[in-house]
Design a protein that fits this description.
By secondary structure, the protein is of the alpha/beta class. It contains eleven helices and twelve strands. The chain has two domains: about 120 residues, Medium-chain alcohol dehydrogenases, catalytic domain (Quinone Oxidoreductase, Chain A, domain 1), CATH 3.90.180.10; about 130 residues, NAD(P)-binding Rossmann-like Domain (Rossmann fold). Helix 4 packs across helix 5 and helix 4 crosses helix 10. The protein starts with a strand and ends with a strand. The model has no long low-confidence stretch (mean pLDDT about 95). Bound molecules: zinc ion. The site of zinc ion (ZN) has 8 residues, from helix 1.
């Protein structure tokens, strides 16, 4: 089974419209503690998505990625309308940003610009399908995106950080009429109304309805078409969970995989 971070009934009007993360009966799966050997899943009928069988060990990291960071990056790319003929810019090189690149590639985007200044992450971004790397941030980063898009900005932008700087960078990198999806959890962001008005972009964001994408993502992983599990660059036993968070906080690891002990 694969379970996203939100439990949903998958039958209400909001769920049927593809927004399971805002289900009328939504519950946060981690609320009662999720990094454990056992987990009680609320609304199990609507929340759990079955795999076709017992997965081979090498598929487990990718299936785990599907439940959270891949599902979120995928939503970012879909909501930003990444697709054939589109130039996509991704702000943020954490696991979600990197997997938004993989998603944009799978969705057929023509050009994918990764905004990243760390070499190991740039390497993974290129492996996942990025065609260009922009190291500059803030307005310098925006100028670089404009330079790469005939002064227009990207058609599709995914914001996967959640800071003021990243959000403004994302808004200013989107061309008029373009689509921006923000999946970085917003921390104290304030958007100037007048600038947003004249930006004339489609703005969409929020917690990803991972459940909407799970059947398709599990299928792609099962057929070994994608390998999103590559974002896990450190594996630790569950008892060392605190070290795992520390490694991510200090940017020594992109994402940590915890293995349950019996
Ligand atoms: Zn629902």
């Amino acid at each position: 089974m694969v379970v996203s971070f939100f439990a949903s009934d998958n039958t209400c009007e909001i769920c049927l419209a593809g927004y399971q993360s805002r289900c009328e009966h939504v519950e946060f799966v981690g609320a009662n503690g999720a990094q454990a050997q056992l987990l009680r899943v609320p609304l199990a009928d609507g929340t759990l998505v079955a795999t076709p069988g017992m997965p081979e060990a090498d598929l487990i990291p990718s299936l785990l990625a599907a439940s959270d960071v891949l599902g979120t990056g995928w939503f970012g790319a879909v909501a930003a309308e990444a697709g054939p003929g589109k130039t996509v810019a991704v702000v943020g090189d954490g696991a979600v940003g990197l997997l938004a690149i993989l998603a944009a590639k799978e969705l057929g985007a023509e050009r994918i610009i990764a905004m990243s200044r760390r070499e190991s992450r740039q390497k993974l971004a290129l492996e996942f399908g990025a065609t260009d790397i922009v190291e500059e941030r803030g307005d310098e980063g925006v100028a670089k995106i404009k330079e790469l898009t005939n002064g227009l900005g990207a058609h599709s932008v995914v914001e996967a950080v959640g800071t003021q700087e990243a959000m403004m960078q994302a808004i200013r990198s989107t061309r008029p009429g373009g689509h921006l999806d923000f999946v970085g959890v917003a921390h104290g962001i304030q958007i100037p109304g007048e600038e947003l008005f004249f930006a004339e972009i489609h703005l969409h964001g929020g917690p990803a309805p991972v459940c909407r994408f799970l059947p398709d993502l599990i299928d792609r992983i099962w057929r070994r078409e994608i390998d999103p599990g590559k974002v896990f660059d450190l594996t630790l036993p569950l008892s060392q969970v605190a070290d795992g968070y520390k490694a991510m906080d200090e940017r020594r690891a992109i994402k940590v995989l915890l293995t349950p002990e019996n």
